[in-house]
Amino acid sequence: MITFQGVSKYYEYHTVLRNITLTVPKGEMVFLTGPSGAGKSTFLKLMYLAETPDEGDITIDTLPLTSLKPSQVPLLRRKIGVVFQDFKLINNLTVFDNVALALRVRKAAEREVRNLVSEALKKVHLRHLADSYPRSLSGGEQQRVAIARAIVAEPLVLLADEPTGNLDPNTALDILRVFRDINLQGTTILIATHNRELLRGTDKRVLKLDGGGLSEEGGA
Ligand SMILES: Nc1ncnc2c1ncn2[C@@H]1O[C@H](COP(=O)(O)OP(=O)(O)O)[C@@H](O)[C@H]1O
Ligand SMILES: [Mg+2]
């Protein structure tokens, strides 16, 4: 599903990622950890095309990112949903309209928009807040809206960059449960976090970035 083959990334003279090789099978949920500045965000950016590797190859669901034709870029973007630490919701749109935005940009039929948005809100347990505005929601609720927005078009891969960074510990665990439920329905998930607390007792694979290299910790 996701493969990294000998991937390196440099900024100026600084090596952020060094010769990384990794396979994440379809349907797996993995954590990417490591101290601040270790390259976790860069690693995810390579997958959602915000950065390009200096060496090596990345494929997502057979699409080769490093030799993607411009016409394949929308296809790749449709396979990937991304969630950030700061939610990035649009405050003057309702919850429903925030989640619907990507579908409307793609000119999906309004009936399909309604069905997919309802499905996505159901998965994050927020159907009752569809008509609310982001500012009236708690941090955990706002992150669940952001997750609904990321999964509304049913991507194969969900990427999350410090998704619990702005949340208290209990809310963070709630959000992890939401990711788990989504993963159980088949979505491959990569979660970058520097928060070791979140990984305690996990049965998921834990990958650690440090000094540019990637190592595997296994279930903690
Ligand atoms: N656009 C950039 N230009 C130069 N250096 C960058 C850029 N983005 C990140 N870096 C550097 O790359 C390293 C890894 O950053 P990042 O991927 O954000 O790490 P993490 O997410 O693990 O905290 C850091 O030293 C950071 O300062
Ligand atoms: Mg980061």
Automatic annotation (TrEMBL):
Keywords: ATP-binding, Cell cycle, Cell division, Cell membrane, Membrane, Nucleotide-binding. Homodimer. Forms a membrane-associated complex with FtsX. Its main location: membrane. It is found in: Cell membrane. The gene is ftsE. Coiled coil: none annotated. Gene3D superfamilies: P-loop containing nucleotide triphosphate hydrolases. One of its GO terms (cellular component) is plasma membrane. Part of the ABC transporter FtsEX involved in cellular division. Important for assembly or stability of the septal ring. It is a peripheral membrane protein. GO terms for molecular function: ATP binding; ATP hydrolysis activity; transmembrane transporter activity. InterPro entries: AAA+_ATPase, ABC_transporter-like_ATP-bd, ABC_transporter-like_CS, ABC_transpr_LolD-like, Cell_div_FtsE, P-loop_NTPase. Residues 2-220 form the ABC transporter domain. The keyword Translocase does not apply. Belongs to the ABC transporter superfamily. The keyword Transferase does not apply. Transmembrane segments: none annotated. GO terms for biological process: cell division. This is Cell division ATP-binding protein FtsE.
